[in-house]
């Protein structure tokens, strides 16, 4: 944790600005707001104190009536909260009394020393001074201040003046920017403000202090853009301790998360809208799906998994025993060249940095030898990693990483066979000798144009740093997620303004992922060339026009002999479609209707009876395996086509027998809902009115549907009369 003392100058020099321009005090308050918001939204445990100087009254423990006057400890050291944020926004007012910034620094150091007595976990101290250094000051205790800050390891940050400006002696000449004499300070809004002699003296004193202690000085124009970002919660890295196994060699290592997908902490809580102080509770009960809705205790239930048409119960003990048992490890399985690990093989939600165990010199030497050997041979290690005893084993690679100050192995997870999705795409002609898709080969002019486009949009050297050198833009460690920033912005606004609507999207957030202005300007001419070289046209479907030539062709085709016409028809109708139909040997579960029609339409063999039997089995399977009404529609389509084809083929007996059997199966098995659907769709027995070969009357069919009588089996062939029967009749 860190202890921070924020010192704010509220004297008269901080409240001077041209009309319509923000004063230094207003800009400082905005900067303090940003610091507090960053601490609050990152859920930081750092503690902050607020000290004002240049106030009309005095309230600090060092006040003796003569020294340390006009200094107030506005808020004692504590964790940042909304009360402090509201205080900064509403209670800080300018005064007409100047203050001594050096005395304020002494009061801040003394307050941190006293407030931290008995507190543990604070590893650093920081003093942040917001001032334009326009008030008088005394340097009698300058050496004492520097000594105390060095002994307590207190860092000093100054926000306000620009100490990098070269001091210029006053003269009577007017510079080109309109400022006379001394160096002019540039405010965040671009307005230049001339520095006074008092300010230059204060800057010289601060420069001397910063040379002796650790710290930095930032102008308002430098600090505010950086502070405008909301920071996420900082998590202390915890080492994953294990042993790197290579055969019978074991190296103690520590693993630290290098990159991991950040999840926004959803600390939402349900509250009663009319009284947010009351937290509603949750009461959950379980009931059976019956008419009485019988309540069931949670202890009387177990989880069940669907296996086919059966629910398999699994108790807590069963679930525990079915887990894969493994021991915590990081075991090298072998080595391979870097080019064998394709970039699209990288899996997982993060990267682990593997280093030797802290304090183990032998482990550091062994791991360093492995890292350098992998680097020099351009290879990686394939390893098996088990995070803990109850974790599933993972496959990954260990990639060497060497920098000037450190070296390590990066663990990147790799996929198993089940994780890989294989797709086949058309190939482009990658070489001069390749003849594949040669018509898509780009010209040399097109290739050069795209090269120029990439060069013009190169992000590696876009922005200028403080030394005037070009540096990379959109670095991941400096690019914040605009979604999270928007959430933080809305939460902060609603907390401070509960009755106002949410604000518009901040321009700072809107510009997070916008291309730099230089990139846009440089790429415009090249993009115009790209448009000319790669002409993209909208392809519209043209309507078939009836031309005279087409009409004459149709007439000629009509006058051709029948043999010729038949050949033309064969070309249009035959082909792959008919070949695939001949390959169908049974009614499948994917396209049962098409399979059934293909079987009964075969010319080489009568497959109607066999196809009907297969279709009946498929209908029964679809209904019984259906989870709820999942496959009912497909089963109903099968039943309809079976009934229709039975009528066409004059085979109603096959369908009627199946319907009687299906009813006897469905109702006892709890599939009454499908039978009701059969009745609604009028897919019951085939009557004489529909097919002459049927011996079922309309009345019998209606009684069968209502369930009053069961149709007698009329499918049995009547027994042939023998000679003895004829004699008996005579």
UniProtKB/TrEMBL annotation:
Name of the protein this chain belongs to: X-ray repair cross-complementing protein 5
Acidic residues biased stretches: 163-172, 720-730
GO cellular component, one term: cytoplasm
PANTHER family: KU AUTOANTIGEN DNA HELICASE, X-RAY REPAIR CROSS-COMPLEMENTING PROTEIN 5
Keywords: ATP-binding, DNA damage, DNA recombination, DNA repair, DNA-binding, Helicase, Hydrolase, Nucleotide-binding, Nucleus, Ubl conjugation
Domain named Ku: residues: 293-431
Family assignment from sequence similarity: Belongs to the ku80 family.
InterPro entries: DNA_bd_Ku70/Ku80, Ku80, Ku_C, Ku_C_sf, Ku_N, Ku_PK_bind, SPOC-like_C_dom_sf, vWFA_dom_sf
GO aspect biological process, one term: DNA recombination
Ubl conjugation keyword on record: yes
Segments of skewed composition (Basic and acidic residues): 706-719
Region Disordered: start-end pairs: 159-197, 706-730
Subcellular locations according to the entry: Nucleus
Gene that encodes the chain: ORF118926
GO molecular function, one term: hydrolase activity
